[in-house]
Amino acid sequence: MSVFMSILKLLAGVGVFLAGMRFMSEGLQQSAGGGVKQMFAKFSDKRLVGYGIGTGVTAIIQSSDATTVMTMGLVNAGIMKLRQATSVVLGAKLGTTITGVIVALSAFSTGGFSFNTFFAAVSAVGVGMIVFTKKDKINRIGRILMGFGFIFVGLIMMCESMVTDEINGFFVGLFTAIRNPILLLLMSFLFTGLIQSSSAATGIYIALVGAGTMTTFQALFLVMGANVGTCVTAIWAAIGASADTKRVAFLHITTAAFGALVFSILLTFFGKQASAFLDSAISLPEWRIALFNVVFNLTYTLLLLPFVGKLEQLARLCIKDTSKKEQPVVTFIDDRMLETPSIAVAQVQKEILRMANLSKANLSIAIKALGGDMSQRDTLIDNEQTINTLNREIASFLIKISTHGSITAVDEKLVGSLHHVISDIERIGDHARNFVEFADELNRQGCAFSADAQAELAVMYGRVSEMFDLGLGVIESRDRSGLKKLAALEDEVDALKRVYGEHHIKRLHEGVCTIESGMYYYDVITELERIADHIINIAFSVDSPTGTIAAVIE
């Protein structure tokens, strides 16, 4: 094999390896999306809980970067505290070591049987599951198996490229020349920052050790450098974020640097003894590096865990609060959450509920205004501006979620229905604004609704308000048990509109209502009836993307 072809095969192996990690990570995220959501729903001030969540989530999604950036998004949105985030970030560093263990499986072989080749063949099973079935669950499993197999295909290609004496000699010469621990750390830092994955970098180092192109001693420093280099992603994600979010990125890199510094000092003095111990205790070179990676991350993160409070103080001391800025309109969503679509979907639902509650509050203010109470008119206008902005921001966020490769079919369907939900919520806000404009006109003309008309509006609004509470409960819990009651209330609102319309005509004939006020009264009951329709659309979206009632009520 020519040197040129060996280089191409090496690069191809690295590419297939990285693609395999990506496919496996996306497949795991799709399959375990609900589990990840449940884990993050349980975060608390307890350090071990946060540490366990960080470890578990990262082991599932195979990316400490994704876990850290997602945590930064939760902090930026004010949902997670800095102290909680610190524990999660420390746990993520341990969770990412599972990839090294997976790669180390390539070292097993017995009686001429190569586990490396066997695992690589799993990719064919995964591809077959994707190609020959349309079922989403099987496709997700196929994606995981395909990615898992590709990791070993890439490893085989990298190892085979080392067969050429020139290529092997080049790497042996390179690592013979670079024996300085600081240079090894720096080289690994730059390489990991470039590919933005410590798991991938460590996997490649394990493969190189297995091929005999570097010593155990050198690989130990490269592994530690990779743990620091992966922090580059979080640094980029912190740009333009809140002070606390920048503190999460600061703690991410300082804790990794602390671990690398302490172990580098120890290995500088005792590295040869440690390498000799690993070489004698573990026969397979790949496992020496994989187990060191686990022990290294487990040791320094557990050492730092009791000092989470002190770490928080350090971060606050080093990164000061910025000058007070205008609060962002969105509360629960942040683009950093897009790293894990299942979390992003859960958070956007919270933002939509907040938007719906603002519309409900505006409707209450508007009904009071029709009764003559204009004291909260400015509040309604501010809320309406917020609702309109939320509509745009949420719609944009939903589009970003739907284009993410790791979104599940269930979440994709939900995202489609949420587009209709925010549209209906925004329309309810428009109706409330119309009511205030009606109230302004009545005041300007010196008119008012009669006592009977006001009593009827109170009854009709009461039914609509009850529907609103019930509908919000349905979309928050995704529980369809209240849909039939909601449909019955909507029928009642329709009936009230017909009856009150007849009463209205009768009052006009009797001169109880003026023509001017009567015109606005009929507009109000008509719009209340339309609001009820919007609430039906919102609630019934749990079963029908467009909120179609016929598809749900049997």
Low-confidence spans:
550-554
Query: What is the CA–CA distance across the termini?
Result: 70 Å
| Main β sheet profile | 2 strands, antiparallel
How many domains comprise the coordinates?
2
The tally of helices reads 22
How would you state the average pLDDT, rounded? 84
Q: Let me know the number of strands.
A: 2
The outline comes out as elongated
Helix and strand element order:
HHHHHHEEHHHHHHHHHHHHHHHH
- Percent strand equals under 5%
Structural class: mainly alpha
Quick summary of this structure?
The protein is mostly helical and 554 residues long.
Attribute tags:
disordered C terminus, two-stranded antiparallel sheet, 554 residues, Methane Monooxygenase Hydroxylase, Chain G, domain 1, mainly alpha
Structural description of this entry:
This protein has 554 residues and is mostly helical. The protein has 2 domains: 316 residues, no CATH class; 217 residues, Phosphate transport system protein phou homolog 2, domain 2 (Methane Monooxygenase Hydroxylase, Chain G, domain 1). It has a two-stranded antiparallel sheet. A hairpin with a 2-residue loop joins strand 1 and strand 2. Helix 7 runs antiparallel to helix 8.
Topology:
Layout: H1 3-31, H2 33-41, H3 47-61, H4 64-76, H5 82-95, H6 98-104, E1 109-110, E2 113-114, H7 115-131, H8 136-161, H9 165-177, H10 181-195, H11 198-210, H12 216-229, H13 232-237, H14 243-281, H15 285-304, H16 308-318, H17 341-370, H18 377-402, H19 409-445, H20 451-477, H21 483-510, H22 515-540
Antiparallel strand pairs: 1-2
